[in-house]
Design brief:
Layout: H1 5-8, E1 31-35, H2 39-50, E2 54-59, H3 63-73, E3 76-78, H4 82-86, E4 92-95, H5 102-111, E5 115-119, H6 126-139, E6 143-146, H7 155-165, E7 170-178, H8 194-197, H9 199-209, E8 216-222, E9 241-247, E10 253-262, E11 269-276, E12 279-284, E13 288-293, E14 296-301, H10 307-321, H11 330-349
Parallel strand pairs: 1-2, 1-4, 2-3, 4-5, 5-6, 7-10
Antiparallel strand pairs: 7-11, 8-9, 9-10, 11-12, 12-13, 13-14
Helix pairs in contact: 2-3, 2-10, 5-6, 6-11, 9-11
This protein binds nicotinamide-adenine-dinucleotide.
Nicotinamide-adenine-dinucleotide binds at residues 35-41, 59-62, 65, 96-99, 101, 119-120, 146, 148, 182, 184, 191, 197.
Amino acid sequence: MSADVDQLAAPMRRSSDGQPPPDAVEGPQLVVAVIGAGDMGARHAQHWRSLGARVAAVVDPDFERAKATAARVGARADTDASGALADPSVHVVSVCTPTYLHAGFTVAALDAGKHVLCEKPAALTLTDARAMESAAQRSGKELRIGFMRRFDPAYQPLMEYTGRAGRPLLAQATITAGVRPKRLMHDALVNGGPIIDMCCHVFNLWDRMFAGEPVAVSARGYTFSHDKPEVAGIAQRALDSALITLEYADGSVGQIQVSWGLPAGIEPVERHNYVGPAGLVTVDWNQHLALRDASGVTRWRSRGVDPWRAQIEQFNREIREGAPREVAGIAAGTAALRVSLAVLEAIRTQRVVAPAEVADVEAIQP
Ligand SMILES: NC(=O)c1ccc[n+]([C@@H]2O[C@H](COP(=O)([O-])OP(=O)(O)OC[C@H]3O[C@@H](n4cnc5c(N)ncnc54)[C@H](O)[C@@H]3O)[C@@H](O)[C@H]2O)c1
């Protein structure tokens, strides 16, 4: 079963008397702390605030950053998370730090009795992902992973079109960009590089589209950015490019060509093709979709919804009203990570690797 089918099918989380679940947050205002005040932290803080939550604290060791975001949402700024985690008025923590720190903050927040929305990818290692899963279970609090593409306006039409074309027999995604503007995105030990950081979106999408995890992974890895000054001196530089083949139990196949190795500044491109038994779906993410089938061509064009805001809005409903879970859970985060680690292992060993059997390999890359 897909790691997330349990969540898709989750009933309205209400007790037998129709009331919201016991851990639902009641009262006039949700109180939130945001850990990490970079691009994602600033987004989370602003979206929580615009939904009527009170942002109590914004935490970042870079105090100027913490202060800048805190000032925009009327929060206090801090360089250390312990105050926010010990604050009994805080209901929810948004974890927006570099990926290698996700598990530590997520586990601490859950153990402190907070609900958590942690940015994707869940973690860099299965040990960390499992620690997050265990903490969610023992705390009874809600843990979600920010696979916000589920809230992208292209997502529902893509699911509808691929439903009409029939479950894909062949899927192909090309994701190409210049060297990323932040060095941490190329660091194998910090954000993990594109095989973890970027491909997790596609693995998460395909888990649902193919209705299950791939059973076999083969891949080749490349580094095209050797000569690029932007990534010079990163001790554990991640592979910047890969060609990945995922095989599913029913014989269908997905292929990904990913590169973050072109010259910096080149406009990123992401295109997908889905060949189903009844048609072809083409995607220019996230602007255009087209379905070609026996009835002709059906086209869709984006109407510009902010998926991060929509995701936070939904999580807010899940916490406050016990709405059905739609924001991805940790199982989805772990599943995507398992495929990323299988890809890295396949590149390292040049063998076909089954994600279900992947060991807790280090995210250190070949
Ligand atoms: N959902 C998406 O599509 C999406 C897009 C971009 C980034 N992300 C993810 O969001 C996370 C953050 O990415 P970003 O782009 O905001 O990075 P960023 O570099 O802009 O921000 C990260 C912030 O975390 C801070 N930080 C570092 N150590 C910390 C600590 N110990 N405590 C608190 N803060 C700390 C840094 O000072 C920095 O301000 C990453 O996991 C990334 O993969 C997700």
